[in-house]
Amino acid sequence: MIIKSADFVVSVSNVKDIINYEDLPQITFVGRSNVGKSSLINYLTNRKNLAKTSSTPGRTRLINYFKINNQFYLVDLPGYGFAQASKTEQSQWQGLIGGYLQNSKALKLVCVLVDIRHNPTKLDEEMVKYLYTYNIPFCIIATKADKIGKSQINKNLQVIANTFGVGTQDIMFTSSQDKQGKERILDKIESVLNA
Ligand code: GTP
Ligand code: MG
């Protein structure tokens, strides 16, 4: 897939507004705060600042929709598990994430991002269990592959795969910094959109 256009459409703070964006299929990124969701959207779309990134966790607090090729939306969800967020904020994020996943009729694929350096967290496991339980199609993407040596990549993917109970072939890895891993992710998105 070649991304010819990528435009920010809207930030949504209330679950009731998500029905306004069901005119096109949606591919959605979830994951722990700071895992690299917004950076991956910028890398995939070849745009530096389309999605706002930050080294401070909790940057993305709203649901952001980006329209790609006038064909589908990439959706950037708030990160979960940011301990320093206030209780009310945290539950609002969880409310937004859960509300989005339950109510988005145009949702075609959830990409669950995990940091390739670490074991998935309890919240990552809960997220995958949730998607599995509600029959929402998902894939796993391991981020920040530039942070470990090449020889370590397959080992870490194996650990992540074991945690989620999937095969290593079901996990893609990427580095938004070194710009690697984009082709497989775009192929996956294309095949889901064409299914
Ligand atoms: P929230 O919006 O808080 O949920 O975070 P996010 O998941 O959108 O993460 P974001 O893309 O803002 O990236 C968080 C930090 O990780 C930033 O400092 C990025 O520069 C850094 N980062 C993201 N992807 C990579 C990567 O592939 N390699 C390296 N080395 N750093 C990365
Ligand atoms: Mg973000």
Explain what the structure shows.
The protein has 195 residues and is α/β, with parallel strands linked by helices. It has a single domain (6-194), classed as 3-Layer(aba) Sandwich (Rossmann fold). The protein is 34% helix and 22% strand. The chain contains five helices and seven strands, in the order E-E-H-E-E-H-E-H-E-H-E-H. It has helices spanning 37-45, 87-103, 122-133, 150-164, 182-194; strands at residues 6-12, 26-31, 63-68, 72-76, 107-115, 138-143, 171-173. It has a seven-stranded mixed sheet with strand order 1-3-4-2-5-6-7, sandwiched between helices. Strand 6, helix 4 and strand 7 form a beta-alpha-beta unit. The longest helix is centred in the middle third of the chain and has 17 residues, at 87-103. The radius of gyration is 16 Å and the shape is globular. The model has no long low-confidence stretch (mean pLDDT 91). The site of magnesium ion (MG) has 5 residues, from helix 1.
